[in-house]
Amino acid sequence: SSEKPGMIWHTKYAFVGFSPTGTMLADDGLNEKGLACGGFMFPGYAKYEDVSEKDYPATISCMELISWILGNCASVAEVRERLPKIHVCGIVMPQLGFVAPIHCMVSDKTGDSIIIEPIAGKLNIYDNKVNVITNAPVYEWHTENLRNYIALKPDNNPAIKINGNEFAQFGQGSGAIGLPGDFSSPSRFIRAAFFANAAFQGKGTDESIGIAFHILNQFDIPKGSVRGEEAGKPVIDTTQWTSASDMTNTRYFYHTYNNRSVRVIDLKELDLNTPNIKTIKDIQRPGKIEDISGQFN
After folding, report:
1. Is the pLDDT of residue 231 over 90?
2. Sign (positive or negative) of CA dihedral 165, 171, 174, 180
3. Is 2's pLDDT higher than 60?
4. pTM value?
């Protein structure tokens, strides 16, 4: 019976994160040990394990997976070791009306990173070769598709000669001609891999966080740019929030669609032993625009 309980688990490590559906379960977050985990939609490919009643004591739902990882694991190595010992089943998310098709990325402060994908009833764990994840299709397809874009580079191309005549680039950026700019998942994967590889590393964590947001801003969807239809109703896709984690210093940074100011939550400043889940509910309100007209001198 679906009414019977699954695995009872307790949160060992405190974490902070986003819950876009209003539940007390995270879709993206950072824990006190510097482990970061994020869930991404995986439609058409996600197939969770079919569990029987004997599996229930060791079963969590797909909705709990990210919270379980953040609450119970201190490193990617621990996730690799513990995840195969439990079952993850699909469950209808009331806010969506269907089983949430999710795959996720887990990273820690050592630089270790994995992708977890529920495929054909099995949880596959892959090394995150390029430190990138987007949505469907499967991770191995995305990494194969990189081979279509091996000519992309940050360096400008030299002039060429045709029939004795020289043709030079119009301006900066010719090395990345062909970089896909659309919002499809395969194109975003290529774009993310390019920027993650090409961008200079920051000199410190704060500069690195700034660079991370410059990269992540390449994926911000202006409202109305991506439209679909479900059950006869229009669906408009937007970037609800954008986050970056300083895993070394356990600081979680984010901005939202309406408020572009970057905010930070420092886990070292929080009471990590509070018995209650605490929330911030007004983060989608519009940000303030600073008027500096009076600062001329």
Report:
1. no
2. negative
3. no
4. 0.93
